[in-house]
Write a structure and sequence with these properties.
Layout (H helix, E strand, L loop, with lengths): L1 E5 L7 H5 L5 E4 L2 E5 L8 H5 L1 H5 L1 H7 L8
Antiparallel strand pairs: 1-3, 2-3
This protein binds iron/sulfur cluster (2 copies).
One iron/sulfur cluster binds next to β1 and α1.
Length: 69
Amino acid sequence: MLNIICKHNCKDCYALRICAVQAIKDQQSSIYVETDDCIGCGACRRACVVFSYDQALKEKTVEWLKGAA
Ligand code: SF4
Ligand code: SF4
């Protein structure tokens, strides 16, 4: 399932670039994660402050980032 993560859409999304399985997509000026492809490595959360510090996002992603904190 494609889940929206960020509407910032930085010029060069660090999270998108670091994802080894290309689960992070840039579509319609927003950043999405394809949860079926995500392996829960947590690299995106280390690469981007949005992934790391946004509490609402943290709660939203807990389910698919199993054990990746
Ligand atoms: S996920 Fe992070 S790096 Fe990517 S566009 Fe959003 S704020 Fe920028
Ligand atoms: S946790 Fe998932 S979306 Fe994030 S970098 Fe790892 S595989 Fe990609």
